[in-house]
Amino acid sequence: MSCLFQKLLGIGFTILVTGGLGFSAEPLSAVRDRPSNAGTIAAQLTAAQPVSIPFKVCGASQTWVRPTRTEQLKKLQSMSRYSGLNPKELQDLLQRFWQRDIFSFTQYGLSLRMEPVYLSGLWTVQDQLWPCYDSTRVNQINAGKTAEVWVLSHRVTRIQWTGQQYVMVVQPAKTGVQFIQFPRRESQSTLPLSVVTDQGSKLTVVAGN
Question: How far is 191 from 185, CA to CA, in rounded Å?
Answer without folding.
Answer: 10
